[in-house]
Amino acid sequence: MRTEDELRAVLRGLESEAPDAAAVLPRQPDNRHGVRRRAVLLAGAAAVTAAAVPVTARLLTDRGSTPAVEPNKLHPFEFVFTVEPYDGYVVSGYAIAPGSGQVINLRNENTTGPRVTVYQRGEVDGAALPAGEPVTVGGRPGRYTEDSIDGLPGGPFPGVFWEYAPDSWATAWDLGTGAGQRVASLRAAEAVRFGHGFPMRLPYLAGPLPLGLRPDSGRLETTGFGNAGWHSLVRLTGPDGLDVQLNAIDPRDYESSGEPAVTAPIGEPVLLGNLARVRFETFVVMVGTIGPNGMPGTPIDALTEIARSLTPAPDFADQSTWFDPRRVFPV
Amino acid sequence: MTFDEFAAERLPALLRFAAVLTGDRGLAEDVLQEVLLRAHQRWAHIGGLDVPEAYVRRMITNEYLSWRRRWARVVPHAEVVPPGGETGEAAFADRHADRDALSAELARLPRRQRAVLVLRYYAGLTDAEIALTLGCSAGTVRGYASRALATLRMDLAPAPIATIEEAR
Asked: Which chain B residues are within 8 Å of A3, Cβ to Cβ?
């Protein structure tokens, strides 16, 4: 048996994992704005990064088209832009949520790269944006600033922002400093390609959603560890604050995270904790309410029903076999 | 206190707390950046609190536990390789190996259980304070702690509350 003192010693030992202050406050010595936001770490192995290229390539369209993102005209998981691979950078993650814009993260073989966010028409008050240095992005007017761009939801974002369509704004930013920041932000902005609906694909089909649930937001990103596979998250919301998430993940990454093993037959949902879990040939899906192990009052039957309704994509590692979200969750 | 003053004074402690909570340097960076960003934006409110650090620590904990973070990174757990007997100090080697094993087992705990242990045994919070941080009851906290300690095969002979008080 171990003692609590041993536990304390182990926890204190983990202090050595503390990051440098510079990593979280890069401009601390000259910190006019407190913090600079950095791209969410979406470390991906080279193999995964390479796998992302064809997916991105399929989404490309001519850059001359820059439609505004009309609020409520899109499926919740439908992007209106993508980022063309450049200088070794490829798309490593997508995130989409009401009021927070559409986000694409980039990375190269070794490190995280810039983040591009596109906002819906009217979502950003252009008059509230800072002055900055005038720049042009894809022929559209923009500005570069190292000041906080406080007018952008989810900001501040030091970087470049531009009006890609009337009353419609986008931003690109990077962790670099000084000239590096400027170059990286502008380079990422120039690689943005607009079009008409790029689906954030999902690795399953689902049956009709119970309890009035509707798709709300989602993420698709690489995990940079273990098997470095894609990880798909979907958030569904319903009446009375009902909040359900579906997490699809490589089973090896699932098991290495310490979650209980899913020993039920393939395709057969099982309830572990307050989460319904179902294992397929190439991935595991967890269905639960928000919060570790679910929240009190979890509608267990509904979660199990959702899990049972899932039909897996043929190959979790190959996004070309995944499904269009408009087919998975019609709205 | 301005945000910059707060960051200059309390950032090292928050860095350590985030590292212990997450057990992963990269994840600690991610979590802390997100939290500091939001704290900066809300500083007019947070800066006026009696103990801003406690509020920010709560933000860190909840960011770590949030659905956005839960699967944002999947941390591999290295196999624990017992050290060889080259030093000839078997007892030291055994103790070292067990700490490695304990650290690995901590990493495998469900996040909420791990958070409870960190808040109780590292941050020195009472169960009532932990309950406030996590937004649950003290009984739920004790349940998480009990399951976590059982998983880690902890000897619970010393009363946790008394130990915490002594640590203060």
From this structure: 154-155, 157-158
* A33/B30 Cβ within 8 A: no
Mean pLDDT is highest, among A121-125, A177-181, A309-313, for A309-313
Residues of chain A neighbouring B167 (CB-CB closer than 8 A): 8
Residue B76 pLDDT exceeds 60: no
Find which of A35, A115, A216 to mutate to test the B interface (most B CBs within 10 Å of its CB): A35
pLDDT digits (tens, 9 = 90+) for A210-230: 989 999 888 887 654 344 567
Hey, are the CB atoms on B8 and A249 less than 8 Å from each other? no
CB atoms A24 and B75 under 8 Å = no
Answer yes or no: do B122 and A292 touch at CB < 8 A: no
Higher pLDDT, A226 or A123: A123
pTM of the model: 0.55
**Tens digit of pLDDT for each residue in B9-61?**
888 889 899 989 988 777 787 788 778 877 887 888 888 888 899 889 999 99
- Flag whether the ipTM exceeds 0.85: no
Question: What is the chain B residue with the closest CA to A223?
Answer: B73
- Where are chain A's structural domains? 1-53+202-331, 60-199
- Return the biggest CA–CA distance within chain B: 58
Mean pLDDT, rounded, of chain A: 76
Q: Which chain A residue has the Cα nearest residue B105?
A: A258
Both structure tokens of B132: 């406030």
Look up the CATH architecture of domain A60-199. Answer: Sandwich (2.60)
CB A234 within 8 A of CB A330: no
Chain A residues in contact with B23 by the CB 8 A cut-off are: 14, 17
Phi, psi of A135 (to 5 degrees): -140, 170
A65 min Cα distance to partner chain B (Å): 32
Distance from CA of B49 to the nearest CA of A (A): 19
